[in-house]
Fold these 4 entries.
Entry 1:
Amino acid sequence: MGVSSQPSTLRLAVSEGVLSPQLATLLALQRAEEPETPILATEVRQEDLIQGLEDGHYDLGIAISGPTSLTLDSQLLWRDELAAAVPRRSPLLAHAAVSLTELLRYPMIQSYPRVCEALSQQIEALLAGDQTRVSCTSGSFELMALLVAAGYGVGIASRTRILQARDWGIVMRPLAEGAYWIGTSLLRPTSASRAAPAISRFARRARAVV
């Protein structure tokens, strides 16, 4: 079923890995300013989010920035710097910033989906095909943080989320090579841009959240 011109409920798909204080602020703003248009939020995999938007199952999506379909409009909302997540007693804490070479001396807990293509390519080049140095692949930040805290390896995630999880037993260190960024984007079908004023109002509120 396609998107109606005046949806009574906005069906919002949220991809794994984008839950953030900014998203909470956006949803609170929507509820305060337009309570007559409630949000039905569903957490889905990134690929299911894109397919669901194309098929008309969702009105809007909030996802990790990256390649999308030509049938979708993408609007960058927020971005955060990527950093290293290391255990609380790691020798890496002797460094104010950690190089990828130093980081990859420890088992890597890789994230999925790839949150930064440029960083992923550098890591793969340093690994040189040696997958024995990859401890496991994590489908969520929570699993990655748990494994890092337990000493199974190190990971890379958004700086903000690592800092929020410090009570779990993980510590953030900047990447010495410089800033790599993860973006969060608002996605909507191109056909919905003019069809539903409620969708446009939600997009305007999203742009106002910093």
Note: The chain has eight helices and nine strands.
Entry 2:
Amino acid sequence: MANNDLTITLEKRAVAGKKVKNLRRDGQVPGVVYGQGFEPISVQAPLVPLQKLVKTAGKHHPVQLNIAGSKKTAMIKEISMDPVKNLLRHVAFHAVRQDEKVTADIPVVLEGLGESPAERAGLVILTTVESLQVKAFPGDLPNALTVSTSTLSEAGQHLTVADLSIPSGVEIDAEPEQVLASVYEPSALQAANEAAGGEAEAEAEEATEEGAGEETGETPSEESQKEAAKV
């Protein structure tokens, strides 16, 4: 990624509380920058560039912040989205130092998925882990942890943490034998799905029967309900 893609200018924010609604109406997104050695800074930024920054950097890549002439390196720690419009509502940045290691969740990417020997033979590869927590200096954090699917050719084979291509300076918080993906026969998957569906149906029927049994009990008297409301 180019550094320009991961740099944004933030303005210090004076408004808070209900008045923040007016900021969003004007196309601004409120946020906060916090870290060691300084008081949290309330900030704001235009929606479009900030949303682009969040999409590009995610929570696993350091970004450069310009705040009233002061520059800080930070990680995006929390984001709040409008569930209806799918637009940013708030962003929290955690300022970090380039000479101190940080932790981040890095996506796991299966290289060659869809073209592996196993899939060409009609088998199915299912991933069990989408990301792993790593520790590294901010500048050493990778965009992704990659592992090749070229070694998968038979049902029952697995890819584990030990198979990952781990960049220099990156520590992974996981056991080497942790499974990342497995190869299955399509028929075995279908049988497992049908079994899971049957169990879910049985549990639903049992819950319905229990609920029906409870409904046959006596309804608390109005006086009892009033007493319960006082508690």
Note: The chain has a mean pLDDT of 85.
Entry 3:
Amino acid sequence: MSKRNGGGAIRIAVVATSAVRRAGLENIVRSHAEFQLAGSFGAVASLVSFAPSTALDVIIIDSDSIHDVLLEPTSDAAIVLLTDVSHARSISRLLRSGVRAILSRESDPDDVLSAIYAAYDGLVLLSTPTAESLAAVYGDQPLEVEDELSEEITSRETDVLKMLAEGLVNKDIAARLGISEHTVKFHISSILDKLGASTRTEAVTLGIRRGLIPI
């Protein structure tokens, strides 16, 4: 697991309008020694005023209003969203805005834990209904994007990026494409540069957000 905060506890803030649901999320966070509950709020607006002065790693938001989530960034924290919103275009907007995980509001604690870890590591995690909703609308087509790359990703680089998303290592990518590992390294370096990413995981995340990797 990556350690953004230097190896300390993962700092988490919880947001939910329902006191009962908020308490449930607080219990999940408090039940794990690796987590630190940095704040708990009844509205995103309260979080907005809190976040700039507090370093957060993950923000868990329980809401059915995407307007609560599509706000100006207040920190670089990864967002885990528990929602019943299922409209594919709303979901794509959420992913483009930086949401890392989208789960049903009725998800069990283990699913929430998986989402926290995935978001913290810069990965994207979607519930099955959410993924199916996207697939029904977009199929194999990439999500629409609003931001442009500093330089166009080539078709071969796109192939390599998709294989990175599959978790393949350089040797496997080289074998599948029939090229040398040195060439694979060259493509990966170019991908990182064009996406402005510092790691493979970040490149995959940015690739999904920019519609380069079908979900």
Note: The radius of gyration is 18 Å.
Entry 4:
Amino acid sequence: MTESHQVQSRVRSVMEDPSAQAIARVYAEAFLNAAGGKEGGETLDEMASFVNDVLQKFPQFETLLTTNVVNRDKKVSMIGRVLGTQGSELFRNFLCTLARHERLDLLPLILNESQIQYETLCGKQRVSVTSSFPLSAEAQSRIQSELGKSLPFEPVLETSVDPSLLGGLKIQVGDTVYDTTIKSRMKQLRKSLRKRSHHEIQCGRDRFSYPEGN
């Protein structure tokens, strides 16, 4: 068996674990508390840089950090060599803690949870906006501005594209969905036409059942 087959990453299985999100949320809260809450923006940027500029660009290094073949002490040593004196002591210690608890594979999830919690601390909240085509920066700015006028927090847009919507927007704030898409309008129209057709058929049956003069 080759070395590439022997080195197996736990990332896939962990990401599919329904409890992974909850575990990541706990680590994210602890990380932000240690970083000073709203004052932890720079440390959060440091985590984002490590995930985006190191792990994503060097997948072999990510595999070494997340595999169960490399022991914990070696992972801690690798983190020290890679970060050196560049990273903050807080972030280095946090990564080492994850390594000792075999949780480095949760780092992308922890980053996402940390960003969400940090945004909440700063009076922001993510809003999902789905359109039938990619929105320009100008359109996103306009939507964000309009939403900000009616929401009790500063919206942070998460955009996605679904061509089947045909046109319009589907906006989700928490558990509430505002659907102004053409697809939704057509669905409502079909429902209205079916209801009207059913009503007309029923009226016709009633006329035949009770003819005039009887």
Note: The radius of gyration is 26 Å.
